[in-house]
Amino acid sequence: MYTDYRTRPIVQIENMVKEFPTGDGVFRALDGVSLQVDQGEMVAIMGPSGSGKSTLMTLIGLLDTPTSGHYVLDGEDVGGLSRLEQARVRNRKLGFVFQNFNLLPRLTALQNVELPLVYGRVDGRRRRELARTALEAVGLGSKLDNLPNTLSGGQKQRVAIARALVHNPAIILADEPTGALDTRTGAEIMALFRELNREQGRTIIIVTHDPEIGRHMDRVIGLRDGRLAENILSEYYGVEVFERVEREHGLEPVPVPVRRRDAGEE
Questions:
Q1: How far is 251 from 121, CA to CA, in rounded Å?
Q2: Whole-prediction pTM value?
Q3: Torsion angle of C-alpha atoms 129, 133, 139, 144, degrees rounded to 10
Q4: Which of 118, 161, 186, 235 is most buried when burial is the number of CB atoms within 10 A of its CB?
């Protein structure tokens, strides 16, 4: 049964600017972005190359600091924190999933999933229990002792998702999580994200350029030239409107993009 977990803002960004120095001045990657993500939402950040979506992800993830602007994460103003304090918040409240998995090759699946708990100074026995539970939750209970080179691409990404979940973060941030996977495996990974969102109320933010992933989202945040773009799906991805169709298994309707017809198309 679907439960709507959305209750309160978990990401609040106001007038965020990020500039990078160049040889003859500065490049403004983000230009006054303001947005909000609520607890329990599953949101995509989309836009063409150079739009600022990856920069926005690194700032939401506390992997970098903005040039200016205001950022409240899970009720905490993180803008004024030191880098060490931000690292502690990041380890508690954020889980990351990357396109290329970022698994350590000499560690087993279980040991890779334990890593955030090592940084969090959780004792060894408790770490193993939590890591085992996380791997079982993504369907890899039989692969605990496998090294990454013995796993398929989809299994590696499931290990990465388990690693992101193991410390029970407030938000999961995923950067092109299906980019290194074939279509079928990518669809399975997106179904897993949706299950985590709908059944556990996980807040999930995914950076992607793939409009098909947008079909799984509650909402799409568009970026172009470092600014919010309300019509990004229409102008860049060729998606004209969203229609509401019933989701399988009795869940709520899902927005499905309807593409514009080309000239001469019936």
A1: 39
A2: 0.84
A3: -10
A4: 161
